[in-house]
Structure formats: structure tokens, C-alpha cells
Amino acid sequence: MTPELDEHGRPEPLIDADEWQTLSGFLDYQRATFAWKCSGLDAEQLGRRLPSSSMSLGGMMKHLAYVEDDWFSRDLHDEPLREPWASVDWRTRPDWEWETGRTDDPADVRALWDECVARARTLAARTYDAEGLGARARRREGGSPGPSLRWIMTHMIEEYARHNGHADLLRESIDGETGE
Asked: Which Pfam families match (predicted)?
């Protein structure tokens, strides 16, 4: 069954779905909400911040691209960091993605985010198909077991939901557009 799209092009999560379809449906809905909040904006608008914050929609988009790669490529599959993340000195620039996303070309940031989301979807589905939602992340720190795919999917829903709230405020300050 294919989800229906709402008036903003977001796939409505199926109400009669199994656990995988529910988690992936809600994550895709949150991703689509973020895409909607960033749509139609130019470089200046994507780089705009509120006076009390260093966040911008461009920085947030690059941050979410990093988070997608970090959880699904690096943690779930224990793949090495790929560019643009691999060459960053994270110790001296812990907010690199937020800073550079504010000034990078919007088309490049959007393409990076789209690429990372597509890769994350593929890796999550491949893991689910092979091992189910209980599959553990292959990357482990300190000898403890990695989180399950179920946990990672739930965490990513939370990550997007949190940042979508920030995106609402930023978008409203840019052009007055509001919505859930």
C-alpha cells in the first residue's frame, strides 16, 4: 500500500501498518516536513538566523545530512566517515556542519542532504530485510552493544521532530509561512 501525500507532498504514515512500516513512515514524514520548511528559499534565507540562535535552515540541513550518514552508514554499518565529513577536524570545529551549511551553495547542501537521506533509507531497509528491527549497530564504542535499528529509527524521528520545531520558527521569521 502506497501512502497518500498531503497538501505539502508529505507521505502520510499508514495507520494499519506493521512496526517497520510505521517507523519508516513516520521518519519519511518528518523528513518531508523538513524539506517543505526549506523549500523555495534562496542562499540568504537559508543562512538567516534568529537573533538569539546560531541556527539556520542551511546549517540544519547540513547537520541532518551528517546525522543521517552518522547513524545509518557509520554506526549501523560501521562504514568510515565519507566526505565531506571525513576531512573535518571535529575537535577544533565541533559545529562545522552548522557553520558551513549557513554559507554553502543551497543547491549543494540540498543535494548532500538528499544523497544522505537516500543512502540512509537504503541502508536501513537492507538491514531490516536481513535482520529485522532488532539488528544491532555494527559500530560499538567501549565494548557495549550498539543500539538496535528500532532505536536508531525512533531516535531519527525524534531528531527530525525536534529540528522541525526549530525550522518552523526560522521559516516563519523569513517569510511568515507557518504550518505544523
From this structure: MST
